[in-house]
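REQUEST ID: PR-0412
SUBMITTED BY: lab tech R.K.
PRIORITY: routine
TASK: structure prediction, single protein chain
INPUT:
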Amino acid sequence: MAKIPRSHLAQVDLVPATSADEPIVANLLQLYIYDFSEIIALEVGADGRFAYPQLPRYWSESSRYPFLAAVHGRWAGLVFVRAEAEPVPVWDMAEFFVMRGYRRQGVGTRLAHLAFQRFPGEWQVRVMESNYAARHFWERAIEEFTGRPPESTRADADGGLRHVYRFESKPAFSRGPDTLIPSMG
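STATUS: complete
OUTPUT:
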């Protein structure tokens, strides 16, 4: 993949994934989980694939929003957003993946900002403490979005330490006709 000029970042899209897209999402999840196998111990199943048992829930639960990431009309990653109601309503960046050939070109930052804009309100992004590259990425992406460094706390969750970044995405003044702003209620 060739480098993407910054002027072409407008051709980065966050595409809502439908149940018909589940095979594409499942394939991209394999790449995502494989990347994680460098950071944490993950094993493939007997079928040679990494497991992601939560995937069907993204089409059966109204609080989950799966997206495909596209660059110039080609699949480049995925974004999963969840609405969490407890203890306070917050949008959660459940999964975020940009294929290696599209990294360090502004694609990930653009995708993150598109997700933040699509879901105004309080946000949290949880990052494994051992994932230094992701921590650096999220600190920069959130600061570029909000104009200030993100607040971060450390929490023990899912058997490991996580940095939890919290911030607010304010509603945009103008939105396109096909922009969906889901309710957290």
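NOTES: The mean pLDDT is 85.
REVIEWED BY: pending
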